[in-house]
Write a structure and sequence with these properties.
With 604 residues, the chain is an alpha+beta fold. The protein contains 18 helices and 29 strands. It binds one RNA strand of 75 nucleotides through strand 7, strand 8, helix 6, helix 9 and helix 16.
Length: 604
Amino acid sequence: MSQAIAPEKNGSVPYEQSRLYSLRHSAAHLMAQAITELYPGVKLSIGPPIENGFYYDVDLDEPIKESDLTAIEKKMKELAKLDQAITCKKAQDREDAKRIILEDCTLGQGEHTAEYKLQLLDAIPDGDDIIFYEQGRTDRAGNKHYFIDLCRGPHLPTTKEIKYFKLMSIAGAYWRGNVNNKQLTRIYGTAFETQEELDNYLYVLEEAKKRDHRILGKQLGLFMFSQRVGSGLPLWLPKGTTLRETLTDYLKKEQLERGYQGVITPNIASSKLYEKSGHIITYKDKMFPFMEDEDNNTFILKPMNCPFHIEIFANALRSYKELPIRLAEFGTVYRFEQSGELAGILRARGFTQDDAHLFVTPEQLEEEFIGVVKLTMDVLKKLGLTNYRARVGTRDPNDTKYVGGDENWKLAQEAIENACKSMDMDYDVSEGDAAFYGPKLDLIIKDALGREWQMGTIQVDYNLPERFELEYIGEDGNPHRPIMIHRAPFGSLERMIGLLTEHYSGAFPFWMSPVQIAIIPIADRHIEYAEKLKKDFKEYRISIDSRRETLGKKIRENQIQKVPVMLIVGDKDIENNTVGVRSREDGDKGAISIDSLKEFLESV
RNA sequence: GCCCUCGUAGCUCAGUGGUAGAGCACUUCUUUGGUAAAGAAGAGGUCACGAGUUCAAUUCUCGUCGGGGGCUCCA
């Protein structure tokens, strides 16, 4: 299990200061104590509380399985009941702390078990307090139990108060989050104040799984995967395609109104294009394998659209009067994501970006950036997504993957922050989350299971124009370098549709629904009337359910398909020129005249 | 890619060291019905794939492929 659903709020106290937070922290210690008793010689590393529980990373000689968690839970219960007091102990100095780690924390299981704790000690800055928490007691049989851990705290006063917990899953996690380090075993658990809260959490988790876009995508006939087609390569079914086209039509219209021009570029290109852009250096192993022709020319399945749009810009000698040039394309790209990174259509190997690149003068940058932010916010509002956060991704100064000079990076970052400030937008700055060619503003939303996904992104880029030596002729008659803005309000069609599916539990708003209206003739003799109705309302996406099934069954199935409006037609309707209206949300609304139906549909 | 976990009919899922079952869906027949599942019959599976252990494997072991939860990563 991971960070899921919503953080538990305890009145107005921030989670980090809540009793629940301490409870989970203590539960992590209790689990570590149980593990040291069951698996002597285990090396402990870190064990913090997280959004919906806690984990502990341990280094075991023998791999453990999920079925072993029961035994650990049982041991935890025993140790909790001992009512071990949990007390804080401050080391005198660094030497003293080292002694405590080597002598006490190892619990007599050998100094090698202190490997990670010693590294953690080294990471504590000079002058900071070095604190330990210990717990212990002798049980009725006379066995001594003891545990001490380097830890900032806080904790509950006694293990007796850790009652309602559950170990959830096992995962691998690299020591200090670095792939080059050893992979440790991470055990996830959760803990609550009451049994009811724990049960409720598990229930909510089950319910959330039903909202999973992969399940709904199958139920609603939106998309599929096939083992024969390959991993991470979705196939769009008719209804999913309709939904997708509805979204692209909407965005195309918005973009047209805002001065964008559509372009179309190929799905493969010479590797030279990506050598020039710098993508090959950074991403070679994350692209699909290269193709080679008889003359040893190498081609690449396109992992992104920017270099193509750059070529289009560079195709003519540009005047400042033409700028800004806004080139838009729903461009399908292919990235060879690691198998473990795939997640339905939220993360696929082939996906379509609602991409555009703006080529602007320095004077236009801020206004254009703000224009793009506005477009993105308008789009998200139209889609009904409001619960997102903004993140400014900046460069990690210690990482070498970034291209371009310091001055360009500084300018680009200032442009983004200025635009955000002038729009009064709240954002977090996240170091190391920039694209390799420039900083970016990302909009992030959570899925059904509480995992965060990047949707829209806006990037300011001084570097690719430099690499491709892009120019326009300024008012002064001299060549100048344009600045690029990369942007995608949806991010990708696939991810956006996945997120929308979970957001709405598949019950899409009327305007987006693949099937907006299902007309249900009661008997065969009513089909003709249904077809006439469909013709009269051809501006809507209508299906006629003319199967020879009972009315109840057809209603049930269209309801499960989350069709927003059903129109039931029978003898009475033909006679009176009416339809029986049934809404997805409100159920049966009774018969209304065809004229009122027009009004009704406009109000949905 | 790594750690854990799963893979039985189109779908959702039971089940077993002696080659398989339910509900829904599908086909046919009866039923033409007014707001969340009409009735009956039929058909449908190399139990993901490959190898090993065994007299015997869908069941146990290993490998491959695919899915899921994490880690890393996401231009």
